[in-house]
C-alpha cells in the first residue's frame, strides 16, 4: 500500500472533518521521517516508502485511534465546577446579607440603609437567571470554532469601533455622568460593559494575522495603532480602570507576539522600549494635567484616595480597612456594628464573618481555575488559540487581582469583579463570554492545524 492510499484509509475513520488536515500532516510527517531513515540504510525511494507505510500498522486501527484523539473535547467537569461555584456565590451572598441585617437588629433606619444602599438590594431570582443565561452563552460559545475569529480580527475591531462609537455618542444611557448602556427592546437598557472586553480576542486575532507578514518595526507600530481607538472609546465612557485593564492586556499580548518573533525585531530592545513608554507616558501625562490644573476636583480626590488611602478612614474604604484589621484566622472578626452591605465587597464580608482562612480558600479556588486555563492556553500548539486564550485569561486575572486589592482596602472602588462572587449581570456575562472562548480553545486543541508561516527571504 502506498502512502496516499494509506492516509486515505486512515482519514476515512475520522469523524471530525475539521481534524483531517492535522491528521494528514501528522501521518505524512511520520511516514516521511521513517522513509528517510530507510533510504539512508540503502533502500530506494519506492521501497523505503512501502516499508515506512507497513511499519505504521493497520490503517483502520490507526484511524480509530486517531479518531479518539483528534476530536472536539468538552471540559464538562470544568463547566460543572463553574456552575456550582456561581450558585454557591449567590447562596453565600444571601447568608452574609442576612447576617448583616440581623446585626442591625430592630433599628428600622439601619435596616433601610443596608437594604437600599449601593449594592444592597439584591434580586436573587434575577441572579440565578443570569447564571443560567450565562452558562447557556458559555456552552454555546464553547461549541463555536474560535478559529473563525482569527480570520476576521481587523474586521471585528473595525466593527467594534463603529458599534461602540455610535452607541456612545448617539444614544447611550448615562448614569452619574458615565455611559451605562444603550436602549434595547421594550425600553430596556443593554449594558455596554460586557461588550467592551470583546475587543481583546479581536485584537489577539489581529496580532495573529500579522504573524505571517514578518513586517518588522513597522508591524509593531501598526499593532500599537490598533490599540488607540478602542482605549480612547473606553476613556470616553469614562472608565479609567477598564481602559487601563484593556491597555495592559493589549501590551501583554503584543509582548508575547514580539517574544514569539512574529515581527522579526530585536526582542529585548523592543520590549524594554514598549513597557518604558507604557509606564512613563501616562505618568508624565497625569503629572502635566495636574500641574496645568486640567484635572477635576473629584478626579483629584480619587487620585488622593489612591495615593493616601489611610487619610479616608470615614469613607467606605475606611470601613473596609476597619473590618479587615479586626479579622480572625477563622470565625467572626471584631469590628463595630456594620451598617452597610455592598455586593462588590463580598470578599471583605467573608473575611469578617468567616475568617481569613475562608477568604484565602476562595482566592485559591478562583486563582487555581485561572491558572488551569492559563496553563492550557500556554501549551496550545495552535498559536491563535494561545494568543486569544492568554488575552481572555489576562482580562479575568486583572479583574480578579483588582477585586482582591479593592476588598483589602488597598485600591479605590473601580468596578472590578470577582468570578463567582459578583452577581451583577455585566460582570457575570464578561466572565461567561471569556470562559466560553477559553473552553472553545480547549475543545478544539487536538483538532485544528497550525498554518505554516513561510520565512521571509532577506537579501544581503
How is this structure best summarized?
This is FtsW/RodA/SpoVE family cell cycle protein. The chain is an all-alpha fold.
Please count the beta strands (DSSP E, at least 2 residues each).
3
Instruction: Kindly state the percentage of residues in helix.
Output: 55-70%
Q: How many structural domains does the protein architecture include?
A: 3
Query: How much strand content do the residues show?
Result: under 5%
Low-confidence stretches: 453-460
Q: In which order are the strands of the major sheet placed?
A: 1-2-3
The span between the termini is: 46 Å
What does the largest sheet look like? 3 strands, antiparallel
Shape: globular
GO molecular function: lipid-linked peptidoglycan transporter activity
Membrane topology: Multi-pass membrane protein
Transmembrane segments: 75-96, 128-146, 155-175, 195-210, 217-235, 241-259, 271-290, 351-374, 386-405, 417-442
InterPro entries: FtsW/RodA, Perm_prefix_1
Secondary structure layout plus pairing:
Blueprint: H1 3-11, H2 20-40, H3 45-56, H4 59-69, H5 76-104, H6 108-116, H7 124-143, H8 147-151, H9 153-170, E1 172-175, E2 178-183, E3 189-191, H10 193-196, H11 199-210, H12 216-235, H13 240-259, H14 267-291, H15 297-307, H16 316-325, H17 346-354, H18 356-378, H19 383-407, H20 425-443
Antiparallel strand pairs: 1-2, 2-3
Helix pairs in contact: 1-4, 2-3, 5-7, 7-20, 9-11, 9-12, 11-12, 11-13, 11-19, 12-13, 13-14, 13-19, 17-18, 18-19, 19-20
Subcellular location: Membrane
Keywords: Cell shape, Membrane, Transmembrane, Transmembrane helix
InterPro entries: FtsW/RodA, Perm_prefix_1
Amino acid at each position: 500500500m502506498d502512502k496516499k492510499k494509506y492516509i486515505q484509509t486512515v482519514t476515512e475513520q475520522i469523524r471530525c472533518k475539521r481534524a483531517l488536515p492535522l491528521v494528514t500532516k501528522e501521518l505524512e510527517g511520520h511516514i516521511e521521517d521513517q522513509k528517510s531513515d530507510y533510504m539512508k540504510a540503502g533502500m530506494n525511494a519506492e521501497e523505503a516508502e512501502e516499508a515506512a507505510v507497513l511499519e505504521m500498522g493497520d490503517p483502520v486501527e490507526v484511524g480509530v485511534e486517531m479518531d479518539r484523539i483528534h476530536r472536539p473535547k468538552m471540559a464538562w467537569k470544568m463547566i460543572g465546577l463553574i456552575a456550582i461555584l456561581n450558585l454557591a456565590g449567590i447562596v453565600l451572598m444571601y447568608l452574609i446579607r442576612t447576617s448583616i441585617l440581623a446585626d442591625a437588629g430592630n433599628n428600622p433606619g439601619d435596616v433601610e440603609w443596608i437594604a437600599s444602599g449601593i449594592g444592597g438590594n439584591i434580586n436573587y431570582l434575577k441572579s440565578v437567571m443570569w447564571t443560567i443565561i450565562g452558562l447557556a452563552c458559555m456552552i454555546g460559545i464553547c461549541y463555536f470554532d474560535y478559529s473563525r475569529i482569527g480570520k476576521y480580527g481587523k474586521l471585528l475591531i473595525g466593527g467594534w469601533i463603529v458599534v461602540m462609537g455610535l452607541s456612545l455618542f448617539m444614544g447611550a444611557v448615562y448614569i452619574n455622568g458615565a455611559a451605562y448602556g444603550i436602549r434595547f427592546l421594550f425600553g430596556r437598557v443593554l449594558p455596554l460593559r460586557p461588550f467592551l472586553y470583546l475587543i481583546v480576542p479581536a485584537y489577539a486575532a489581529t496580532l495573529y494575522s500579522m504573524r505571517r507578514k514578518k513586517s518588522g518595526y513597522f508591524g509593531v507600530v501598526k499593532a500599537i495603532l490598533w490599540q488607540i481607538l478602542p482605549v480612547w472609546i473606553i476613556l470616553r465612557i469614562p472608565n479609567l480602570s477598564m481602559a487601563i485593564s484593556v491597555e495592559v492586556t493589549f501590551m501583554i499580548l503584543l509582548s508575547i507576539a514580539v517574544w514569539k518573533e512574529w515581527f522579526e525585531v530585536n526582542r529585548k530592545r523592543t520590549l524594554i522600549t514598549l513597557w518604558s513608554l507604557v509606564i512613563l507616558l501616562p505618568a508624565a501625562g497625569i503629572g502635566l494635567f495636574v500641574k496645568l490644573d486640567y484635572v477635576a476636583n473629584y478626579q483629584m480626590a480619587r487620585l488622593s484616595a489612591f495615593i493616601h488611602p489611610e487619610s479616608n478612614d470615614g469613607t467606605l474604604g475606611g470601613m473596609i480597612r476597619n473590618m479587615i484589621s479586626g479579622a480572625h484566622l477563622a470565625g467572626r472578626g471584631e469590628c463595630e456594628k456594620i451598617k452597610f452591605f455592598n455586593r462588590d465587597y463580598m470578599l471583605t464580608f467573608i473575611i469578617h464573618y468567616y475568617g481569613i482562612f475562608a477568604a484565602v480558600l476562595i482566592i485559591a479556588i478562583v486563582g487555581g481555575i485561572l491558572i488551569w486555563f492559563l496553563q492550557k492556553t500556554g501549551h496550545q500548539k495552535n498559536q491563535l488559540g494561545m494568543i486569544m486564550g492568554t488575552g481572555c485569561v489576562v482580562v479575568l486575572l486583572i479583574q480578579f487581582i483588582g477585586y482582591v486589592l479593592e476588598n483589602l482596602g488597598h485600591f479605590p472602588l473601580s468596578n472590578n469583579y470577582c468570578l463567582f462572587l459578583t452577581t451583577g449581570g455585566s460582570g457575570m456575562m464578561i466572565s461567561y463570554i471569556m470562559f466560553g472562548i477559553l473552553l472553545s480553545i480547549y475543545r478544539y486543541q487536538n483538532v485544528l492545524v497550525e498554518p505554516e508561516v513561510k520565512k521571509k527571504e532577506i537579501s544581503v
